[in-house]
Write a structure and sequence with these properties.
This protein is of the alpha/beta class. The protein has helices at residues 44-60, 78-87, 105-119, 138-146, 201-207, 217-220, 248-257; strands spanning 9-15, 17-19, 40-42, 64-73, 91-96, 123-127, 149-160, 165-172, 175-182, 185-189, 212-215. The protein is built from 7 helices and 11 strands. Pfam families: ETF.
């Protein structure tokens, strides 16, 4: 039995639809960005966030009241929400935007702030970065907008629900750092935090019955139009093949020819 005064935790996990990690990235013919007519999947770092939220509920039992996943993306991003629901989340929120719109981290953080104010989670877990733009800014910006404590690059997360704190082990240059944050808090996930589970067919079928709420940027009162304009995107120059040399003198001569020695 849990004490009647014990805190029930609500967890929010933002997720992003991104180009699948196994796809070879190519610049589009217009040179305005990369080719997006390819396979997409849930951003791997966000998938780790969903897995961690589900594991916390398995560990804390009935102390976790609700796990909500939220995404900002086109209609097809609904598939990512269904995947997260099949992994164990309870409900989804879809902020639908045109496929041609690519929000920047600040716009995403402002939209998430409105969702946080609406859902009132105790803990927000999201990926440390998205593998498409590699910005790595949204979690920190959300914490700043909310005025909440934050722990980034988490490789271990422990929630002390009676005390209302989350302890995060994070990887830093010198090794491991352990930080303790008062709830509510923002946590961003690193690769070594966990390995996401495969979704079973029964859970995929159950996920179809779980609720997904549709919202728009206008309803949230946020402007998701990017502030930066990409002028041109080009592929890096092709790498030239190497050559074998027979001696140090020949190596030095080759380096001089290349202008690097």
């Amino acid at each position: 039995m849990r004490p009647s005064s014990a805190r029930l935790l609500n967890i929010l996990v933002p997720i992003k639809r991104s180009i699948d990690y196994a796809v070879k990235i190519r610049v589009n013919p217009q040179q305005t960005g990369v080719e997006t007519n390819v396979k997409h999947s849930m951003n791997p770092f966000d998938e780790i966030g969903v897995e961690e939220a589900v594991r916390l509920r398995e560990k804390l039992k009935d102390a976790v009241k609700n796990i909500t996943v939220v995404t900002i993306g086109p209609t097809k991003a609904n598939e990512m929400l269904r995947t997260a629901l099949a992994m164990g989340a309870d409900k989804g929120i879809h902020i639908e935007i045109p496929e041609t719109l690519s929000p920047e981290p600040l716009g995403v953080a402002k939209a998430l702030k409105e969702v946080v104010n609406k859902e009132k989670p105790d803990l927000v877990i999201l990926g440390k970065q998205a593998i498409d733009d590699d910005a790595g800014q949204t979690g920190q910006m959300l914490a700043g907008l909310m005025g909440w404590s934050q722990a980034t690059f988490a490789s271990k997360v422990e929630v002390d629900e009676p005390r209302g704190v989350v302890t995060v082990t994070r990887e830093v240059d010198g090794g491991l750092q352990k930080v303790e944050c008062k709830l509510p808090a923002i946590v961003t996930t690193d690769l070594r935090l966990n390995e996401p589970r495969y979704t079973s067919l029964p859970n995929i079928m159950k996920a179809k019955k779980k609720p997904i709420e549709k919202l728009s940027a206008e309803e949230l009162g946020v402007d998701l139009r990017p502030r930066l304009e990409t002028v041109k995107v080009t592929e890096p120059p092709k790498r030239k093949g190497g050559a074998k040399v027979e001696s140090v003198d020949e190596l030095v001569a080759k380096l001089k020819e290349a202008g690097v020695a």
